[in-house]
Structures are given as C-alpha cells and as structure tokens.
Hints:
The chain is mainly alpha-helical. It contains six helices and no strands.
Amino acid sequence: MRALSRVLFCLGAIALLDCSGAVEPVQEAPVVKSLEARRLAVAAELQAMIATSAAEGGYNCCIKDPCVHCVRLTGHCGCAEGLKRGEPVCDECAYMWTRGQGSIPGIDPKDVRSFLEASRPEDPEAGCDCGKPEPTAD
Ligand SMILES: [Zn+2]
Ligand SMILES: [Zn+2]
C-alpha cells in the first residue's frame, strides 16, 4: 500500500503542477561541445593519466614533456630505459629528439630511432635492382 500511496501522491503533485500553469517543463538542450573543447578535455585527461602513471612509477619517458603516444596506447612508457639499452623509442619521442627535446644525457639525437625506422632494412637499396641498368652479358 505504501507504493500505491506514493504513486497517488506523485500523480497529485503532477496534477497540481499542471493546474497551476506556472511551471513550464524545462527542455534540457543537449550539450554539444565544440571540437576544440573536446580536444582540450582529451588532452587534459591524457596529461592526468601521465601524472597518475608517473606517480606509480610507470612513466619513464625520454623527452622533456613526456609523450602522449604511449599513454594513449598502453598507459605507461618505458622508452627512457629502452633508449639507454640502445632500443628504439616511439614515433613521438623519436621526432622530439630531432627537435632537441631529448632528456637523456649522453644520447646522440642522431642515434635515436623510432620503432618504424628500426623495422626498416638498414640499406633500403639492398636487394633491390629497381632503376639500375641491366647487367651487360659478356
Ligand atoms: Zn620517450
Ligand atoms: Zn612514447
């Protein structure tokens, strides 16, 4: 009975509102954020994720402002340790090293490679005869 009385009370309340005519139902406009507002929100969240990951010891990047590439993909970054072992780094870090943003002392920016670069053959011409003149048979 308690439920029924509650329903009746609600119906009464609605009737009261309808009769008064003073309360117009407010139509909530859907919030459409601009692309820029959404970009800023995502960027802020990524920075907050980097801070959390770093506080937990999971973000050891090799550039001055830690990359967002790795937090976006895995939530953590270990390219500083990898780079010290001579391993490639993520695309963003490799690019930032070319812009003088590297933060590991003793590393020559020219030696920093991205995983993409590292996956390519050392000599792109090796094993390819394209564009070369036909060998003359004699
Ligand atoms: Zn890095
Ligand atoms: Zn990275």
